[in-house]
UniProtKB/TrEMBL annotation:
It comes from Tremella mesenterica. One of its GO terms (biological process) is mitochondrial electron transport, cytochrome c to oxygen. The lineage of its organism: Eukaryota, Fungi, Dikarya, Basidiomycota, Agaricomycotina. InterPro entries: Cyt_c_oxidase_su5b, Cyt_c_oxidase_su5b_sf. GO terms for cellular component: mitochondrial inner membrane; respiratory chain complex IV. Its main location: mitochondrion. PROSITE patterns: COX5B_2. Keywords: Membrane, Metal-binding, Mitochondrion, Mitochondrion inner membrane, Transit peptide, Zinc. It is a peripheral membrane protein. Zn(2+) binds at residues 112, 120, 136, 139. Pfam families: COX5B. Residues 35-64 are annotated as: Disordered. Belongs to the cytochrome c oxidase subunit 5B family. The keyword Transit peptide applies. This is Cytochrome c oxidase subunit 4, mitochondrial.
């Protein structure tokens, strides 16, 4: 029985080889697609570090990722990427002349400590593009949003937080 099956194997192979093969015209696999790059442009900053070498303790530059890496690369360039400097309060903001709050987003939170500084506990105010001004209930200082971001954010429907 086994010898009969062995003799049928070559016949089955010939039958498979004699069948017509359908070929698709114009299709290429991704491995042969030519690589196209935009001239003169480098990619976005790499937010994933290369990692540490085996047997060594990795440095912050090697192991940091995401926002931590973004902040670290900014510090190396001498840039405060999150703009965490306190506002310089040289005057009390009034309705006629409010303190402008720079923002790339249509809403920003401001911590008022009074004028002169540290006159009262920090009170958090929300300044946005919907209201002209925000006024501190403790000292009366007035803030307004100085929006410098994408105008498409002002169209509405994008109030995700």
């Amino acid at each position: 029985m086994a010898s009969a099956l062995r003799t049928l194997r070559p016949i089955g192979r010939l039958a498979l080889l004699s069948r017509p093969v359908a070929r698709s015209v114009g299709l290429r696999s991704f491995s042969v697609t030519s690589l196209r790059k935009a001239g003169g442009h480098s990619g976005p900053p790499q937010l994933i570090g290369p990692g540490g070498k085996p047997g060594e303790v990795p440095t912050d530059e090697e192991q940091s990722t995401g926002l931590e890496r973004f902040q670290l690369l900014g510090k190396l360039e001498g840039v405060d990427v999150f703009d965490m400097k306190p506002l310089e309060m040289t005057r009390l903001g009034t309705v006629e002349s409010p303190i402008p709050i720079y923002s790339l987003f249509p809403e920003r939170h401001v911590g008022c400590t009074g004028y002169p500084a540290d006159s009262h506990d920090t009170l958090w105010l929300t300044v946005n593009n919907k209201r002209k001004n925000a006024r501190c209930p403790e000292c009366g200082c007035v803030y307004t949003l100085d929006f410098k971001g994408d105008p498409a954010l002002l169209e509405g429907g994008h109030d995700h937080h």
